[in-house]
Amino acid sequence: MSFLSAYFYDSFLAKTEKACLKEWRKDILKHVHGNVLEIGAGTGANILVYPNNGIQLTLSEPDKHMRKQLEDKVVRNGLNHILITSNSIEDNNAKSETYDCVVSTLVSCSVPTLESTFTEIKRILKPNGYFLFIEHVGAEKGTRRRLWQNRFTPIWRNISGNCHLNRDIEDAIVNAGFTLKEIKRESMRKATPLVRPTIRGIAVKN
Ligand SMILES: C[S@@+](CC[C@H](N)C(=O)[O-])C[C@H]1O[C@@H](n2cnc3c(N)ncnc32)[C@H](O)[C@@H]1O
After folding, report:
1. Whose CA is nearest to atom 19 of ligand 1?
2. Closest atom of ligand 1 relative to the 25 alpha carbon
3. What is the rounded distance in angstroms from the CA atom of residue 4 to the CA atom of residue 203?
4. Ligand 1 in contact with 44 (CB < 6 A)?
5. Are 135 and 40 in contact (CB under 8 A)?
6. Residue 187 pLDDT exceeds 90
7. Burial class (CB in 10 A: 0-12, 13-18, 19+), 206
8. Which domain holds residue 123?
9. Would residue 24 count as lying in a domain?
């Protein structure tokens, strides 16, 4: 991401946060426990939403401009117990079965491949660990929205940090061998129409 995209990221999302995202973040993050890794933490939109229940929180963010916003926000809010790393999910270096929970909010659209990402998340989760997610996804196949998502994705990826509009993320989570404990499918209000279809929920490592 460019410095400017990172700098204005929170402002771009502000109306959507107010309309629904903030509430969805709370809805998901109330389930975190134990040793928690958030991947692609961005500018730290989740940091004030985590419950104060004794979790050990690591935030990873590979993009240096996003990470700068994240570090500033963590310091501004006096959350110095939070560990920040520059790892992407594919080079996170964690030992197998390290985390009780892995959190991803609006990240799976941008990773190199869903298959390698979810395999890696499964590897680093403890047995019965939670993968907690909020993701924008491909619309139902055959719809006009999906057609336009398919058309726009090659351009969109180039201007939005590899963000794909048309990924079938729910199928990929299930194909990686997770069990869906909870899933909600909702339109992301006040967002650009092509990123409105979303899923959020809890996938459990068997
Ligand atoms: C749309 S932003 C979402 C930021 C934040 N999670 C949120 O909810 O607002 C996507 C983030 O994913 C990060 N990202 C992209 N590829 C990644 C990867 N392979 N592993 C981890 N994070 C990645 C980007 O640097 C960016 O900060």
Report:
1. 111
2. 8
3. 34
4. no
5. no
6. yes
7. exposed
8. 3-138+166-205
9. yes
Q: Is the CB of 176 under 6 A from ligand 1?
A: no
Atom of ligand 1 nearest to the CA of 63: 25
Residue whose entry in the numeric block shows the structure tokens 């310091």? 75
Q: Which amino acid is at 20?
A: C
Yes or no: say if 198 and 187 are a contact pair by the CB < 8 Å rule. Answer: yes
CB atoms inside a 10 Å sphere around CB 117: 23
Q: Does 157 map to a domain?
A: no
pLDDT of residue 95: 98
Centre of ligand 1 to C-alpha 147, Å, is 25
pLDDT band, residue 3 (cuts 50/70/90): confident
The mean of the pLDDT values for the chain is: 97
What pLDDT does residue 81 have?
92
> Measured from the CB, is residue 70 less than 6 Å from ligand 1?
no
Split into its structural domains, the chain has a count of 1
pLDDT for 2: 82
Give the pLDDT of residue 4. 84
For the entire predicted model, the pTM comes to: 0.97
Which of 60, 27, 36 is closest to 198 using CA atoms?
A: 27
Are the beta carbons of 74 and 93 closer than 8 angstroms?
no
Tell me whether residue 91 is in a domain: yes
Write the DSSP assignment of 2-58 as a string of letters: -HHHHHHHHHHHHHHIIIIIHHHHHHHHTT--SEEEEES-TTTTTTTTS-SSS-EEE
